[in-house]
Structure formats: C-alpha cells, structure tokens
Amino acid sequence: MFKKEYWNLKALHQKKLQYQAAMDRVKQLPPDYQQAFQQISDYLMANYGGFDGFDLMDAQVNLIDLFSEVAAQQTPVAEFIGPDIAAFAHDWGESMNVPNWTENYQQKKQAKINQRINKKLGGK
C-alpha cells in the first residue's frame, strides 16, 4: 500500500471493510479449502509483505476469489494446489508481486558477507 493511501483513513477503513467481507467468504468455502487458505495465509504472513500486512490483503482476497471459483467446480483442493502447499503459497506470493522480506533479508546478508570476504582478500 502506498504511503499516501496508508494515511488516508477513509480509504484505509474502506479497504479493511472489503477485506473483512472477503474473509467472511472463507467461511462459505468447503472445510478443506478453508484449511488450505489458512495455511497459505500463514505462510504469506511469515514470509511476505511489510510489517503491517496491508500489502497482503489483495493477495488474500484474490486467493479467496480463486478458491471460490475452483470449489464451485467441485475440484478437490489437494488436486488444485498440488502436494506441496508451501510451494503453492510461495508461487502465489510471487505471482501477486508481494515483497518477500525473508528473501530480501537473505540477499542483503549474503551481500554483506561477500563484501567482508572480498575486503579481507584485498578486493573492494
């Protein structure tokens, strides 16, 4: 979410209402879809987004829309997401262009280590 939008309290309140309405739709999904949604949401919250989670809202709402469509076709959730729910969650986060803070942290850490090693070896 852009900083300008973040401080627009009316827009923020509206976004929260839309998000809550979408979360209420999760309760209408079959139990296996509800469980999969919760596991994917937990993965996304642990690995993606900023500190407030607002940038994950759209990804979750889009996932609810997708699960609603697939469940309406009576496709088993395991058949749809495959055997590796973490891989599905990772791919979903990437496809929604949500920042992955764990990967960013690892990249920064690796760059610092490389910089220290190069400095000790006489490089820049």
From TrEMBL:
Protein's name according to its UniProt entry: Cytoplasmic protein
InterPro entries in the record: UCP029876
